[in-house]
Amino acid sequence: MSICMTACVWGTLGPRDITPGIIQYWRIIVKWYCIVVNSASPWLWLKQTNSFFAWLLNILSPCQGLQDYHDKYPFIRKASSFSSSASFLTNGNNNAYDYIIVGGGTAGCPLAATLPQNFSVLLLERGGVPFTNPNVSFLENFHITLADTSSTSASQEFISTDGVLNARARVLGGGSSINAGFYTRASKRFIEKFGWEAKLVNESYQWVEKQIVHRPQLSPWQRALRDSLLDVGISPFNGFTYDHIYGTKVGGTIFDRFGRRHTAAELLASGNPHKLTVMIHATVLKVVFDTTGKRPKAVGVMFKDENGKKVQAILANKRQSEVILSTGAIGAPQVLLLSGIGPKAELKKLNISVVLDNKFVGTGMADNPMNAILFLPIGQLSSLSYKLLGFPSWVYTLSLAVGLDSPVTAFAATMVSCQPRLGSCPPFLQTKDHHKLYRLT
Fold it and tell me: Distance between CA 323 and CA 342 in Å, rounded?
């Protein structure tokens, strides 16, 4: 009865009536109901009815409101709705795009949001949307996404050739949809190294921060970690700042005060809906090249939709038209290899026609290794995301903390290297059986 009453009363409210106070009120009612129904094991009962409450909390979220995501993102459609042209070289075809972006992650989404100011853009993403997935949307479900190994999960688990366990994003928004949500700016030296214009970079930072970044509130655990970093000499304390500076600081977070995640996919709302098309569940098979000239020229992309049907997207026959690969450190070389660009010998072994022999494609993969210490606290602690950063001048490390909300909460203090390293953990310590043995459930 309480649930029915809640739904009925909520149904009488209009979007303008939904205030943070009302949202918090109904959150309290929902949690109170969980305890009253089964006071002996409320967490077990909540787990059994997780889908309903995830849906209800999704409705109560201030950033989603009562609007369906199609109202805010009318240009997002399933790949099966795409109509391809019969020829890649047709001039003036209405289905040709100035830019085709492969991969809707933290690089692809802002590109797809800004390029449509002047150009027609097609964004292809192999996963679905994050807006309707409660495991992506809420901090309290952060660990569920990473533990989900199903084919429809927003994260895709994999093991590297040297035995290191990891996960790739398989959802619009990319890594910002499955990570711990910590936000910080790059170092000035990094910007200078790549020759980027500092003024434009700073303007871009502000554009992103205004839309999806928030100032976090520290928990007692995180305040204790902050004090510990200062005690061991990682100073000075810089307070809250986005800047990349030595010492200890409180960085930004993409989780708002309600625990709702704001991903790079939300940046797409800034795009021109008349010149932007986003296809989800579109798995790119290869970039198609015209090899009749002196050098190969990208003319389109072949992908398959959610039903397995192969589809072709073409580039407009314009000088500035490009296919942009933003599929990450693993996805980009993968697409290049499938497209015939890479070491000639390897491509022939895979029966892939060679478009361009390049021995460097698919080599030199590096990652940022992390060491974690797990422990069980006395009492239950609330879910936390990465909010603290300790950056000593003598070693490139980050010091962070994360918690998972469950009947018996486990905590991890982690040290993450800022400098990429080749996988260094011995395979016998990083097998899938070893991972399952120690995985939290």
Answer: 17
- DSSP-based three-state secondary structure for 58: helix
With respect to residue 129, please indicate whether it lies within any of the assigned structural domains. Answer: yes
Residues 105, 173, single domain; the answer is yes
Question: Which two tokens mark 50?
Answer: 């997780």
pTM: 0.76
pLDDT at res. 370: 67
392 inside domain: no
Cβ atoms of 314 and 83 within 8 Å: the answer is: no
Helix axes 20-37, 2-11, angle to 10 degrees: 170
Last residue of a domain, one of 344, 365, 386: 365
Whole-angstrom CA distances from 251 to 213, 247, 363 are 10, 12, 33
Q: CA 161, CA 385: separation in Å to the nearest integer?
A: 30
Is the pLDDT score of 76 beyond 90? yes
The structure tokens listed for 297 are 């020229």
- In this structure, the answer to whether residues 165 and 312 fall within a common structural domain is yes
Instruction: Please check whether residue 121 lies inside any domain of the structure.
Output: yes
Find the largest Cα–Cα distance for the chain.
74
Q: How far apart are CA 396 and CA 369, in angstroms?
A: 12
- Tokens standing for 82? 């795409």
Give the whole-angstrom CA distance, residue 340 versus residue 214: 43
b/e per residue 235-264 (b: at least 16 CB within 10 A): eeebeeebebbebbbbbbbbbbebbbbbbb
Task: List, for residues 389-412, the tens digit of each pLDDT value.
Answer: 555 544 444 444 444 333 333 444
pLDDT digits (tens, 9 = 90+) for 314-349: 999 999 999 999 999 999 999 999 999 999 999 999
Which burial class, exposed, middle or buried, applies to 126 when counting CB atoms under 10 A from its CB (0-12, 13-18, 19+)? buried
Higher-scoring residue by pLDDT: 367, 187: 187
Q: How far is CA 65 from CA 14, 177, 224, 280, in A?
A: 10, 19, 35, 23
First to last CA, the chain: 32
Q: 80 and 17, same structural domain?
A: no
Question: Whole domain around residue 57: which residue ranges?
Answer: 1-66
* Integer Cα distance of 432 and 281 in angstroms: 27
Domain end call among 365, 394, 424: 365
Count how many domains the chain has. 2
